[in-house]
Automatic annotation (TrEMBL), chain B:
Record has Translocase as a keyword: yes
PANTHER family in the record: ABC TRANSPORTER I FAMILY MEMBER 17
Name of the protein this chain belongs to: Phosphate transport system ATP-binding protein
UniProt xrefs under InterPro entries: AAA+_ATPase, ABC_transporter-like_ATP-bd, ABC_transporter-like_CS, P-loop_NTPase, PstB-like
Length: 367, 259
């Protein structure tokens, strides 16, 4: 007599894939992918591509059969987004891994950071390659050169760029001059770096003399590349300072330039500082403009205003292209990879520094 | 320490657009005057012309005279910066400087102008201004904390303290309570009542009850239609504006028939 309770499915639900469905599909896709690749000749790259396509097709069609078209489209979009993310991430990881693997032997060689290439000849490299003697020579001169050239470029670009952006935001009012500046800054952003180098070389050729190659010339070339970046980022930062703060300051009887220096810039300083740091990170790896403006040196030169100067990118370039010992390029390769690792670490430190600066200067909100 | 304001035949333009037309008004010293009217009738625009803050907006200009105790604000050679040290302003949304502490916010008018002030005098000024803005008891233990950490009503009173720290003759308030909750509004209204002992206060408000509560005199502005200039319709004692207005439009507005 007891009525059997038929557990009816809620009218509000539809079929659902189990939570572990993606893992099943992934496993199947990997296995089938491996099988297909085994037929036509196995390689890891092809395996990844085929498995990814199989995974997307399998998951989407299974979901379409069980859950309906809307959920299937959702799964397809998820697959595309994740796939795009992986494709974007792969080269980055690959670069970091390659540079780490190749660069660490160079970096941990004693004296790599503390010595220059002065007096290091092919004979030493042959000895290192053939008899296992330690690789001599280092990047001290290039590191110093990079730091000095970049510092001088920053000292030139930041005042010019910041003042330009202040003019654009606070005084420009969309006047013809302001619009012209914006246009030319945009054009400058697109200048190929070698052209900036040629410009600086020709400029110093005209005012100092033929063949002037010093760190200062390189710094001018880098400034040409840096200024538009600094102008653009500072302009954006100054624009987002609320007008209310400017008005509050004017209403207290504060003059416009004091309002700018004491209210607007302090409010925007964290963004400006991180923009400047990113601009530095952008130019620190430039090779071509430095090669045509500062030349290349194997000795330590701490005078940016006289003599040729080495830098990390040009050091890498010459070590790879003209190994110290043409018959045994191994030690030169090792030094080049080590220098590349140092360059990447420098850029990473700059990015970290930008975040720290942004956090340090950010307006405080705590109680 | 307060001055009267007399406005004669004032027109305000944005570019070629006449925003406010032909205002004549006499604002008494040591009183609270409220400007009421529907949105877009030019009351805030007119308020800004009383300390030349409208010049911050591109294309804004005026014709006519605004006399501060007889001195024309728009006379030749008058420096708008001097005008603004005499006529302070409090804005609709509380806008303390986010990079400064509570103390530095109060001292902003002094410090931003690079005036030298001894620490003792600065402390005294901070206390006097914050007491004057009814905020001292709430913040005296955390003067070095950022001003943006206060509640909205406290921030607005901080902005009032900042405005009175430069010791102006007149304080203009542009809808000072419209972003505040009722309790904070009450605190600010109490403050306005106290401020009129020392300052000439002019307040723009959307809230007719607020105008009735705080002001001695009320000016009603209206606009004939979109694209037409705003006009001063009626200016009289607050009680007569609300109980016995002489103009039909005023009566319609205060009785809630439009606006």
């Amino acid at each position: 007599m007891t009525a059997t309770v038929v557990r009816k499915r809620s009218a509000l639900t539809k079929g659902q894939l189990p939570k572990f469905a993606p893992y099943i599909v992934l496993a199947v896709a990997l296995v089938v992918g491996a099988a297909i690749l085994a037929l036509i000749g196995f390689n890891a790259f092809g395996w990844g591509i085929v498995s990814a396509i199989l995974f997307a097709v399998g998951l989407v069609s299974w979901s379409g059969a069980v859950e309906g078209a809307r959920k299937a489209k959702d799964k397809l979009a998820t697959c595309l987004v994740v796939g795009a993310f992986l494709i974007a991430l792969l080269p980055l990881i690959s670069v970091i891994v390659t540079v780490l693997i190749n660069g660490i032997p160079g970096l941990i060689t004693p004296g790599f950071l503390g010595t220059s290439m002065n007096g290091v000849t092919g004979a030493f490299d042959n000895k290192a390659a053939e008899e296992g003697a330690p690789v001599l020579g280092g990047i001290y001169h290039a590191l110093m050169g990079t730091i000095q050239i970049t510092l001088l470029a920053t000292v030139i670009s930041v005042p010019v760029g910041l003042l330009t952006s202040i003019y654009l935001v606070e005084y420009g009012n969309d006047r013809p001059l302001a619009r012209a500046i914006t246009f030319f800054v945009d054009v400058m952003t697109g200048i190929p770096s070698i052209v900036a180098g040629l410009f600086a070389a020709a400029f110093f050729f005209a005012i100092v003399g033929p063949g002037t190659k010093t760190g200062a010339v390189a710094a001018v070339a880098l400034s040409v590349l840096m200024i538009p970046v600094v102008v653009r980022s500072s302009e954006e930062m100054l624009k987002i300072v609320p007008n209310e703060l400017r008005e509050a300051s004017y209403a207290l009887g504060v003059r416009k330039w004091r309002t700018i220096t004491k209210v607007v810039i302090p409010t925007a300083i964290s963004g400006i500082a991180s923009g400047v740091t990113l601009a530095i990170a952008r130019v620190i790896g430039e090779t071509a403009p430095i090669l045509v403006t500062a030349g290349f040196a194997t000795t330590i030169n701490n005078n940016v205003f006289g003599g040729w100067m080495a830098s990390l990118p040009t050091f890498i370039y010459t070590q790879i292209l003209n190994p110290t010992s043409p018959s045994n390029p191994g030690p030169s390769d090792q030094r080049a990879w080590g220098a590349a690792l140092v360059l990447i670490i420098l850029v990473m430190l700059l990015n970290l520094g930008a975040r720290l600066i942004a956090r340090m200067f950010a307006p405080k909100t705590g109680r | 320490m307060s001055k009267r304001i007399d406005v004669k035949d004032l027109n305000v333009y944005y570019g070629n657009f006449l925003a406010v037309e032909d205002v004549n008004i006499n604002i008494q010293a040591k009183s609270v005057t409220a400007f009421i009217g529907p949105s877009g009738c030019g009351k805030s625009t007119f308020l800004r012309t009383l300390n030349r803050m409208h010049e911050v907006l591109p294309g804004a200009r005026v014709e006519g005279e605004v006399l501060l105790d007889g001195d024309n604000l728009y006379g030749p050679g008058v420096d708008p910066v001097t005008v603004r040290t005499q006529v302070g302003m409090v804005f609709q949304r509380p806008n303390p400087f986010p990079t400064m502490s509570i103390r530095d916010n109060v001292l902003a008018g002094v410090k931003l102008n690079n005036k030298k002030i001894s620490k003792g005098a600065a402390d005294a000024l901070v206390e006097k201004s914050l007491v004057g803005a009814n905020l001292w008891n709430e913040v005296k233990d955390r003067l070095d904390k950022p001003g943006s950490g206060l509640s909205g009503g406290q921030q607005q009173r901080l902005c009032i303290a900042r405005a009175i720290a430069v010791e102006p003759q007149v304080i203009l308030m542009d809808e000072p309570c419209s972003a505040l909750d009722p309790i904070s509004t009450l605190a600010v209204e109490d403050l306005i009542n106290e401020l009129k002992d020392q300052y000439t206060v002019v307040i723009v408000t959307h809230n007719m009850q607020q105008a009735a509560r705080v002001s001695d005199k009320t000016a009603f502005f209206n606009i004939a239609g979109t694209g037409k200039p705003g006009k001063l319709i009626e200016f009289a004692d607050t009680t007569s504006i609300f109980n016995n207005p002489s103009q039909k439009a005023t009566e319609d507005y205060v009785s809630g028939r439009f606006g």
